[in-house]
Structure formats: structure tokens, C-alpha cells
Amino acid sequence: MDNKQEEKIKVLLVDDENLIRSLFADAFQIYGGSVNFEIEVANGPEEFRKKLFDYQPDIILLDLIMPVKGGDGAEELSEEAGFTLLREVKENEKFKNTPVIVFSNLGDISAKEKAESFGADAYMVKSETLPDDLIKTIKKLLNLN
What's the sign of the alpha-carbon dihedral 125, 130, 131, 135? Predict the structure, then answer.
């Protein structure tokens, strides 16, 4: 992209919480400035995998704790779901250079270190992150400053 300021920046937001998806999708319109953000949301691992290839995002915002189907078919929350998706993205030839921001409520250092070891480009704790800070981090990772 030669002039990202005039093109749409495609963001794939992966989070199972409706409020978070809505809040941060709106924040892109409010805090995006001259950057035209296009937001696509996925509510879990299966939807993410489909949308990753269909949407081909410029950047991914990835929650770690997401619902997965347990052995009995019932959904349960798992932080490993997010780490698995992160590893899949970074090991995929087509998407390995796509920036991934882990955007989670897990604030402990071990989760951050694990995400970084899997290739996360940034790690932000939802409860400590203002929408404007998230937008600034995205712009920095995509060299839009």
C-alpha cells in the first residue's frame, strides 16, 4: 500500500464479548482520524479461521480467552484458543507478516511472554487500554504515523 491514509485499513477483531466488539468497532470511527478503518469481527476460533482467509486483514486484534467446544460438545472458555490462533497465523506463509495485537483481559506477565514467544506484535490488556491508545498502536505497527 503506497498511501494507506486514503485506502481502507482492514482490521479483524476477534473477541467473544459483544460489548467489546461493539465498543472498539465504534472507536475506530471516532479515533481513526484520517485513516479509514474497515472492521470485521469474529466471535470465536471457527469464525476467525474462515474470516482470516475471506477478509485478508491488514492487522488482527486477538482476544486470548474464547469459547471452544469441549469433549462433550458443550462450550467452555479457554485461553489456549487464542494462543492456538496466534500460532496458526504466525506459522501461515500468507499471514505470518500480518501484525497481531493480543487484546486480552489476561494481565499477567506469563501470558504476555507466551504471546510474544508465539509472535504477537503487541500485547494490550483490555481493562487498561483506552480506545485511542489501541488506535495509536495500530497506526504505529502499520507505519501510519
Answer: negative
Indicate the CATH number for domain 8-141.
3.40.50.2300
- Which of 4-18, 33-47, 48-62 is predicted least confidently? 4-18
- The per-residue b/e assignment along 12-41, b for 16 or more CB within 10 angstroms, e otherwise, is bbbbbeeebbeebbebbeebbeebebebbb
Burial of 136 (0-12, 13-18, 19+ CB in 10 A): middle
Q: Are strands 100-104 and 122-125 parallel, antiparallel or unpaired?
A: parallel
Structure confidence at residue 32 as a pLDDT band (50, 70, 90): confident
| Cα gap 121→96, rounded to integer Å | 11
Q: Is 47 exposed, middle or buried (0-12, 13-18, 19+ CB in 10 A)?
A: middle
Q: What is the mean pLDDT of residues 56-61?
A: 96
> Quick one: pLDDT at residue 50?
94
